[in-house]
């Protein structure tokens, strides 16, 4: 062990005295203002870029949905695995301040490359893909590398005795994250869609604005340089930890202080083992819950907005009230309660999902297809499939089918000779059906059969889809909103296109005979699919897929519960990770906390891809798993003993001082006996 000399002791004391001035007479250092603004701008940059990333993959790079989803989750996962690298660099080599600056520069470069890759005139499609992937990798290393450092660096600004102020700082810090998220996820999609550049959606601008915000974040952080309390790196922490563990296993002897610090970290990391399950549920807000919202009749973002409201409510209302009831709400108890609230949120989501799926046409399974019959003849028809009783009742002219009917198949494809009876005359049609496909069988007035594949997947934006069938002898052109439908004569069928929800009572229809007239389509509702059949001058309307009839407000309870859970779990966990870590390993422990998020996403991928459950069943499974995990976590928390790293530092400083006094005493005795001088720093 190296014992501190007198000069080392004096330097350590002087560093503790050089603190940032306080904000308006409070115990909050001025330096944290720069850190909070930096975090706001960085989170705006990150979430703003992610808000349009999937659409960029699909519409600009022309990747399919599966590849886009895989790359999106790979990028998200990398952003939460790289914090361990940033933590090691900060605690072992550069220190938090320099690590944040250098990796922020990498972050900015990644944003710039990503923005350049979104300019159509720069190279070909291969160049765009290469620049996009390189930019994302640099962004992942930048944002992931600074994640564990910024929060820990903010905590370093507080003096040892200002525990309450430091706890509230982490709440403010978390609010800045969500404030940046709210603004960016509103602004960048607008920049992409409403601003046109290079002949299309302006992805270059949508990525360029987050890049500019990251530059602002870096400048603001550097501007506060003279005010920061900068803790120097403590040597190669990871190497020392590995050495210590190895020596402990082999010789049961090593540096006393490092042993204590490693014990502290390992005890906290052990508590982290169950935590990914919380994130497995929480992060489904951006996937499963968002998809659930697209099948409802409205859409708005709640979590980030609720966070801004709930943080002060919990800090100034809920927690003090619980304290008045003489209930000791420790950090680990808060986290366990947050896990239970998240599980309840998924129970609420299950109830919503059960009702939402009633209006959804699910993709049929293997060896099965879905079919509806549109009778355009002048009388009832009976449709018979050999070996199946799928349409037992006669079908009336222009009858709106109540729902699609399941048609079993013997293989992945089957040919049927369908019998259609009209006015006691039997007509036969030979039709080919493929599995997992949805069809409309359109019967013309002469009982000609036309089999059409239907679009049935609801729009992500809640838009309605419609198509037109023209039984007239002239071509027609119809303008609905921003869409133009061209429908040829003689039972021509238009494309199925999406239009915004609304009343369409005065739609312009232009005939090839140069006649113009207005038609009333009525309400085109959220998520519905319509077929309009023109018979003479009369329009017939059928609803192929029912509109979303569950209001988005029914999602409010699950968002309230998950946000309350986030406040109690995530903010508390962030502060707990800092408070229980020794000075030399604060960034490492913050990185361990962030790794629980990464592993939570892995759990989602495993369950979602491997279980093959219905969505509401999957929600129940996740809720049950989190309840079980929260019980295990509560048991582990019961046996956990809170430590004070600052007190540990004080004890070792006192011990070093005593050892120095002993060395001085020994030195004097040796000098009095004429023995050789003992060096000021002695390895023992």
UniProtKB/TrEMBL annotation:
PROSITE patterns (alphabetical): PTR2_1
GO MF assignments:
oligopeptide transmembrane transporter activity; symporter activity
Question: Predominant location of this chain?
Answer: membrane
Q: Which cell locations does it reside in?
A: Membrane
Q: Where is the composition biased (Basic and acidic residues)?
A: 653-671
The record's Pfam families line, in alphabetical order, gives:
PTR2
Its topology with respect to the membrane? Multi-pass membrane protein
Entry keyword set: Membrane, Peptide transport, Protein transport, Symport, Transmembrane, Transmembrane helix, Transport
Instruction: Name one process (GO BP) from the record.
Output: protein transport
Gene Ontology cellular component terms for the protein in this record: membrane
Q: Does the keyword Translocase apply?
A: no
Q: Entry's InterPro entries?
A: MFS_trans_sf (IPR036259), POT_fam (IPR000109), PTR2_symporter_CS (IPR018456), SLC15A2 (IPR043381)
Q: Where are the transmembrane segments?
A: 74-94, 100-117, 129-153, 173-191, 203-223, 235-253, 265-282, 302-324, 336-357, 556-576, 588-608, 620-643
Q: Does the keyword tRNA processing apply?
A: no
* Residue span of region Disordered: 1-20, 653-684
Family per record: Belongs to the major facilitator superfamily. Proton-dependent oligopeptide transporter (POT/PTR) (TC 2.A.17) family.
Protein's recorded name: Solute carrier family 15 member 2
């Amino acid at each position: 062990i190296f014992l501190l000399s007198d000069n080392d002791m004096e330097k350590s004391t002087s560093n503790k005295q050089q603190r940032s001035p306080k904000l308006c007479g409070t115990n909050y250092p001025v330096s944290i203002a720069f850190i909070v603004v930096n975090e706001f701008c960085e989170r705006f940059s990150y979430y703003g870029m992610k808000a349009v990333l999937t659409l960029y993959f699909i519409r600009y790079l022309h990747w399919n949905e599966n590849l886009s989803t895989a790359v999106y989750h790979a990028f998200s996962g990398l952003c939460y695995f790289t914090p361990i690298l940033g933590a090691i660099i900060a605690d072992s080599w550069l220190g938090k301040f320099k690590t944040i600056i250098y990796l922020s520069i990498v972050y900015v470069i990644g944003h710039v490359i990503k923005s350049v890759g979104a300019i159509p005139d720069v190279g070909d499609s291969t160049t765009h893909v290469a620049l996009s992937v390189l930019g994302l990798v640099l962004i992942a290393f930048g944002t992931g590398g600074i994640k564990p450092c910024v929060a820990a660096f903010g905590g370093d600004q507080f003096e040892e005795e200002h525990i309450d102020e430091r706890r509230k700082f982490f709440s403010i810090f978390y609010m800045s994250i969500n404030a940046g998220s709210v603004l960016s996820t509103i602004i960048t999609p607008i920049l992409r869609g409403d601003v046109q550049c290079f002949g299309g959606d302006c992805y270059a601008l949508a990525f360029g604005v987050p890049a500019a915000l990251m530059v602002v974040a870096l400048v603001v952080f550097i501007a506060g340089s003279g005010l920061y309390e900068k803790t120097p790196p403590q040597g190669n922490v990871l190497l020392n930890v590995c050495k210590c563990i190895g020596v402990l296993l082999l010789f049961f002897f090593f540096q006393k202080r490092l042993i204590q610090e490693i014990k502290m970290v390992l005890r906290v990391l052990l508590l982290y083992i169950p935590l990914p399950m919380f994130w497995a549920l929480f992060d489904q807000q951006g996937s499963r819950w968002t998809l659930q919202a697209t099948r409802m009749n409205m859409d708005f973002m709640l979590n980030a907005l609720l966070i801004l409201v709930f943080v002060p409510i919990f800090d100034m209302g809920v927690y003090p009230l619980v304290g008045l009831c003489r209930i000791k709400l420790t950090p680990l108890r808060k986290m366990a309660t947050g896990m239970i609230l998240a599980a309840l949120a998924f129970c609420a989501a299950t109830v919503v999902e059960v009702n939402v799926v009633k209006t959804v046409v699910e993709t049929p399974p293997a060896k099965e297809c879905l079919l509806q019959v549109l009778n355009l003849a002048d009388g009832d028809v009976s449709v018979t499939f050999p070996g199946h009783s799928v349409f037992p009742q006669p079908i009336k002219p222009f009858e709106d089918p109540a729902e699609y009917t399941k048609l079993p198949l013997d293989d992945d494809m089957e040919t049927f000779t369908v019998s259609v009876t009209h006015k006691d005359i039997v007509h036969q049609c030979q039709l080919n059906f493929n599995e997992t496909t949805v069809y409309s069988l359109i019967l013309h007035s002469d009982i000609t059969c036309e089999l059409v594949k239907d679009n049935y997947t609801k729009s992500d934006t809640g838009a309605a889809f419609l198509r037109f069938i023209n039984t007239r002898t002239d071509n027609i052109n119809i303008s609905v909103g921003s869409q133009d439908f061209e429908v040829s004569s003689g039972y021509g069928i238009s494309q199925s296109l999406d239009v915004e929800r609304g009343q369409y009572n005065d739609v312009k229809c232009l005939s090839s005979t140069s006649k113009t007239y207005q038609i009333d389509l009525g309400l085109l509702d959220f998520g519905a699919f319509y077929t309009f059949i023109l018979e003479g001058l009369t329009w017939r309307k059928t609803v192929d897929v029912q509109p979303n009839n569950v209001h988005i407000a029914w999602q409010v309870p699950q968002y309230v519960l998950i946000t309350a859970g986030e406040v109690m779990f995530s903010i508390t966990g962030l502060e707990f990770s800092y408070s229980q870590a020794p000075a030399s390993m604060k960034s490492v422990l913050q990185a361990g906390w962030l790794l629980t998020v990464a592993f939570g996403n892995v759990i989602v991928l495993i369950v979602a891809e491997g279980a093959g459950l219905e969505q509401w069943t999957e929600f129940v499974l996740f809720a049950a798993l989190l309840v079980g995990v929260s019980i295990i976590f509560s048991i582990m928390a019961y046996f956990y003993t809170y430590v004070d790293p600052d007190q540990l530092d004080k004890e070792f400083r006192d011990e070093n001082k005593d050892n120095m006094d002993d060395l001085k005493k020994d030195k004097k005795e040796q000098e009095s006996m004429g023995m050789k001088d003992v060096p000021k720093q002695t390895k023992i």
